[in-house]
Amino acid sequence: MKKSLLAVAVAAALPTFAQAQSSITMFGILDASVEYSDAQSNATLTGTLPAQSVQEGEGGFRLNSGLQSGSRFGIRGVEDIGGGLKGIFTIEHRLDISTGDTQGGQIFLVPGGANSTTNNKFWNGQAWVGLETGFGSVTFGRQYSPIFWALIPADFTAYGFYNNWAGFSGTNTNIATTQGPFRLDNSIAYKSPTMGGLTVYATYAFGENLSANPATAGSPGSSTVGTGDIWGIAAGWQLGGLYLSAGYHSIDSNPWSTTAAGGQTAARSVLAAAASYKFTNFGLSVGYTDISFKQISGNEPSVSNILISAFANLGPGTLFLNAAQLGVKNLNIYSTSGTATAASGGNTFNLGVAYSIPLSKRTNWYAAYGLNDVSNFQPSSATNQIDGANRFSIGVRHLF
Q1: Are strands 265-278 and 282-295 parallel, antiparallel or unpaired?
Q2: 25-399 has which fold?
Q3: What's the whole-model pTM score?
């Protein structure tokens, strides 16, 4: 009896954290579709300006991955430490379900860097750990940017299907993006609790002081390219069906002056705002983003986007529509000698339409169409033109 009483007394005297409760959740999305893309969707640009031409590809079918939602596998955890404090983490692997390959990254113009959607990181989605209290959460690692979180409620596709608000698909330009980088490595992020419908997001991402100039890759940071640090802040306010949001990112980067191709432009800042209203069976939203760049010569270039998203519940499923007008100003195209050969500007029109039907709580099928009209974006002297790229898909998505 005395031993039992002693054990109870010792357990009661232990620190709160020794009695913490934790939970681990595995989650994922598997999304595959059969896609038809026409000849202009599979076209490539050849030659040099101003005599650049378009080499059309062969229209046909392919198996696609992650059209509605990027295919992924992840683990998230929460530990109730006590006293209102929780330990939290998320790690997430993105994959191409059609091949099993790692897939992720982002399309983003950086000084001296290669713009690509491929990524060889294993935890190439989210990878972060942090603490949560009643005053909000602070997390550390690879995380979504403040603008990403602020705009996603206004995109009714949740950044899915063709030409969503996270970026456009099907264009032949490496500035086909609306937000700049939407995952930030080496970042510290704060998310406030929701108060009166208002949520605030703030992030600082360290560029790790490394030069982006290929000639000095891996060396300490150079004053010609900046630190690569990014800070951003955004907020979203929900009142019934009304949602308003805005955000700003600042990027410490400068173009490096060299004769190597692709190293004369660097993104400097991103501005975004959106407003939406969601009724029971339909909704409409409009957004605006602007990415400012820095060049070694010429005017300050920018890429601005006017974004529209809508949905309507029709029959057994939901119809989605995204449309965007992308405008480019003063973005020079450089030759390998480091001289500007033409000033690139113009507009592109991008459209995405999809219809999704749920088969269960976790499985749905969908049909989608995407159009990218870049006819007003190409040099008038080009021997051939890409008038409109068309894509069609039928797919299935399963959540677990």
Answers
A1: antiparallel
A2: Porin (2.40.160)
A3: 0.82
